[in-house]
Amino acid sequence: MIKVVIVEDEINARNSLKKLLSLLNSDIEIVGETGYVSEALQLLSTQEVDLVFLDVRLEDGTGLDILEQLEDVSFKIIFTTAYDQYAINAFKYSATDYLLKPLDPLELDEAIKKAQSSIENEKQRQELLEVLKNNLAKKEAQIVVKTTEQQYILKLQDIVRLEADAAYTVFITIESRIIASKNLRHYQEMLSEDFVRCHQSHLVNMKHVKSLYKGKFLKMTNDDLVAISTRKRSDIISLLDRN
Amino acid sequence: MFNKDASFSSIYRIVLLLFFTIIGCSPKDQVSEADIELVKSLQSDTPQESIITLDSVIKQQKYDGIQKGLMYFEQGKLWSKIHNSTKSIQSLEAALEIFENNEDKRYITKTHWLLGSENAYISNKEKAVEHLLRALSYAQDLHNQTDEANTYSALAHTYFRYQDYNRAIEYTQKSIAIQKELQDSAGLSATYNNMAVIYRNMADLPAAIEYNLKSLRLNLALADKNAIAKSYNNLGLVSQELGDVKDATDYFNKAIKINHELGTFNANPLTNLGDLYLDGNELQKAEECYKKALAISSKNEDLASQRDIYTILLNISLRMKDFDQSMEFAKLRDYYMELQIKRDLQEKLALAENQYKLAAKEKELHYALEVNRRGKIIFIVALGFLLLLVLFWIQNVKHKKLQVEKEKMMLEQSVLRSQMNPHFIFNALSAIQNSLLDNKPIESATYLSRFARLIRQNFEFINKKYISLADEIELLKNYFSTQMIRFKDRFDYKINVDNLDEEDTEIPPMLLQPFAENAIEHGFKGKKEKGLIIINIKGEEERISFEIIDNGIGFTPKENDGKTHSIDVFMKRLQLIGKGDERSVSINSSEAGTTVKFHLRR
C-alpha cells in the first residue's frame, strides 16, 4: 500500500482527489488530509508517509513552508495548484512533479506511477527541493538538468547556450558541457525569457551574446560562434538593437 | 502619418500663415520708404546733395540695367554742373559701360557727347575728341541731327579751347548747316554767338560783329528778349574792343534797358558799361553804373560781385579823392568780403553736414537692412524652434494618448483578471468535478451551466463601458451562486435596491464583484458561523450610493506584495471615469466585518 497524505485547503479539490485516487488505484491508502500548514507538519512528522499531494497555497501559508519546517523529507511529493504561473515555472526549473486542478485523471495516474518507480535518493530530492525553494524565493534562477547518470543544478545566468544533439541537448555553460537527456524543445519552452532560438539547433542566452559576427553568426561571451538561420536573422538583429 | 492628425495639420497651417505674414510685412517696406525719401531729396536738393543721394541709391543695388545707367548719367551731369569734371567723367564712364551693355544708342551718344565736353574742360584733348567723334558717329547712325549739331558744337568748343580756331570754325559751320536745315533758330542763334566768340578771340572783330548781328537778328525774330539782351551785351563788348565807344555804349544801354524792362537781374551789361566809362575816365557815370549793378547784385545776393563792385567803387572814389566815400566803400568791401568768406564757409559746412546726414541716412539704411536680415534669421530660428516645439508637443500628446490608452487596456485586462480570478475559476471547476465524481448528474449539470453563464456574462460585459444596474445585479447573483458551488451554504447574500430604476441606471460593469470576492474568499474563511453579504444600492439626487457590508473576519490590506489588488483596480477605474468618485470611497474593516461605501455621480 502506498501511504498518502493530502494537503489541500479547497474542500472540493480535496474530495475530488480522494475520489479519483480510489477510482484509479486500489493500492493507495490515505493516511491523512488537511488544509493547514500546522496540521500537515504534525501529520508528516508523526507517521510514515510515501507520497504527499501538496497544494501550493494553503489557508495559513504555503506548501513550501511545510517542507522548510520538516527536518527530513523522506517522502515523494506531487505539487498541486489551480493557478500560479510563478510556481509552475519554479516546478519546471526544478524538474519537480506537479499537477493542475481540476485534475486530469490520466496525469494523476502517471504521476503516481512515476513516483512509485522513481529511484531518486534522499540527496537528489533535497537538491531538487533546494532549487525549488530558491526559485520560489525569487533568487537567482536555477535549473535542474538531468543526464542519464545524474542531475546538475545550473544557474540560468551561467548558461551560455544550448545545442541540439539528436534527442539530447548539450548545455554549454561558462565552465562545463552537459549532455541533458531531454530535447532542445523541452528546454526552449522552459527557458522562454532570456533564451532565443536563433537556429534549428541552437538556443542562446541573449545575455551572453557579445556581438553579431558577419551578419550570420552570434559571437558569444566564450567566443563560440553560433549560426543564425536566415529566417530568424531580422528578428535576432532587432532584438540585439533593443538590448 | 501627420496628415491623419487633424490637430497637427491645422497648427501647421497657422504656423505657415504666421511665417508668410511676418516675412511679407517685415523687410521690404522700410527700404521702399527710404527710396521715396531719396528721390524727393534728389529733386529738391543742391547738386552736391543729389550726387550723394544718387550714390547711395546706386550702392543699394536697387536698380539695375538702364535704370542704374541713368543714375550714373544724372550724377555725371550734376558733377558737370558744379564743374567737377574728373568726378563727372567717372560717373559718365560708368553710365557709358551700362548703356553699351544694353546697346542704348541714344544714351551712348549723349554720354559720349558729355564725356567729350568734360574731357575738354580738363584739357584732355585727345579723349575729348575721341568721345565726341564717337558721339558724332552714333548720332549720324541714328539720324539724330540735333545731337549731331550739338556734337559739332562741342567739337568746335573743344578745338576752340585749344586755340585751334580753324577747326573750331569748321565744326561750328557744320553745326550751323544742320541747324539751318532743321530751322532750329534758337540753336542757330547760340551757334552764331559761339562763332562770334571764336572770331573775337581770333581778333577778327568784324567777323565777330557779323555773327553777333546774325545772332541778334534771329533773337529779334524769335522775340527772345533775354537772348536779345545778351546779343546787345556781346555786341557792346566787341564794339568796345573795336574802340567804338559810342556803339558800345549804345549796345550796353540797350541790353540794360531790356533787362530792366524784363526785370531780369543781370548786372553784366551795367558793369560792362561801367568799365567802358572807367576806361573813358568818366568816373561819375562809371560810379552810377556800378551802383546800379550793385543794386542788382545785392538783389541776387551775389556777394562776390558786390565785393568786386565795391572794390571798383573804392578805386573810383579814390581817384575822385572822395576819401569819406572811399572809407565807406572800403568798409563795405571788407564787409562783403567777410560775408562772402563766411557764406563760403557756411556752404562748405552745410555741404559737410549734408554729407554727414546722408552718410548717417545710408548707415541707418544699412542698419535697417542688417536688422532686417538679423530679424529674419532670428525669426527663422524661432520658427524652427516653434515647429520643433509643436512637433514635440504633438508627440507628447500622442504619447500621452497612447499612455492613457495603454493604461486603459492594462486596466481592462486587470479588470478581467480581477473579476475572473483564475483561482476562483479553477476552484469552481474543481467543485464541479467533485460533484461529478459524486455521481450527481443533475447537480453537476446545474453547476456547469451556472458557471458557463458567469463566464459568458464576463465575456459580454468586459468590453463595455457601462451596463445597466439590472445586468450588474444579475452578474452578482450569478457570481454568488457559482461561489456557493464551492462553499455550499457557508454564506448568504442580500441585494437591496432603493429608489432606482434598475433598467435605466447605468454603471461600469463588475464594479461590486471585487468586494463580494474579498468577503467570500478571505472574510468567511476560518469563520465558524454563516457569512452574510448585504449590498445596498440607493438612488440619491445626483448620485447612486453603494454599500457592501459583510460580517467576515475583516482584512488588512497587504502592501507591496507585488500583486495588483482588486481594490486598487477599483479605485483606478473610478479615477478614469473622471468624476472624482474615487474620493467617496470609504472602507471600514474590523474583526466584526467590513463595510465599503462609495457613490457614483450620475
From TrEMBL, chain A:
Key words of the record: Coiled coil, Phosphoprotein
Protein name per its UniProtKB record: Response regulator transcription factor
Ranges of residues in domain HTH LytTR-type: 143-242
InterPro entries xrefs: CheY-like_superfamily, LytR-like, LytTR_DNA-bd_dom, Sig_transdc_resp-reg_receiver
Residue span(s) of domain Response regulatory: 3-116
Pfam families noted in UniProt: LytTR, Response_reg
Gene Ontology molecular-function annotations: DNA binding; phosphorelay response regulator activity
Species the sequence originates in: Fulvivirga sediminis
Domain of life: Bacteria
TrEMBL record, chain B:
Top-rank taxon: Bacteria
Keyword presence, Membrane: yes
Keywords: Membrane, TPR repeat, Transmembrane, Transmembrane helix
Domain Signal transduction histidine kinase internal region: 412-491
Residues spanning the membrane: 377-394
Segments annotated as TPR repeats: 149-182, 229-262, 267-300
Family annotation (Pfam families): His_kinase, TPR_12
GO cellular component: membrane
The keyword Nucleus appears for this protein: no
Gene Ontology MF, one: phosphorelay sensor kinase activity
PANTHER family hit by this protein: SENSOR HISTIDINE KINASE YPDA (PTHR34220:SF7)
This protein's name: Tetratricopeptide repeat protein
The species this protein was found in: Fulvivirga sediminis
UniProt lineage: Bacteria, Pseudomonadati, Bacteroidota, Cytophagia, Cytophagales
